Amino acid sequence: MKGSSASRMCHAWAYETVKIRVSKKVGATALGLLPKAKAAKRACDNFEKGGSHHLCGRTSSYWFFVDYKGIKGYVPSACVEAVA
User: Fold this and answer.
1) How far apart are CA 77 and CA 75, in angstroms?
2) What is the spatial distance between Cα 20 and Cα 17, in angstroms, rounded to a whole number?
3) 32 exposure class (CB count in 10 Å sphere: 0-12, 13-18, 19+)
4) For residues 9-21, average pLDDT
5) Going by C-beta distance under 8 Å and a sequence separation of 6 or more, which residues neighbour residue 49?
6) Read out DSSP for 61-72?
7) pLDDT by residue (tens digit) across 37-62?
8) What's this model's pTM, rounded to 2 decimal places?
């Protein structure tokens, strides 16, 4: 995973279907979707500050870099739950 050499793997579980984006901002190009109630792989120490967003009923400026079925990009933390 990006930015982590020896990190163990965790997951980001989606509250709602969310776009996987090329960078940490809402207007960035979407690469694909992380469907509601599905989990994407992520490094456990992966929690990055980026563009502020108000999505899924929450406001945050943090993002996760994920890998969902080979689609690698960023999802807003407001729409996912970090799980081990």
Assistant:
1) 6
2) 10
3) middle
4) 96
5) 24, 61, 62, 63
6) EEEEEEEETTEE
7) 999 999 988 889 999 999 999 999 99
8) 0.88
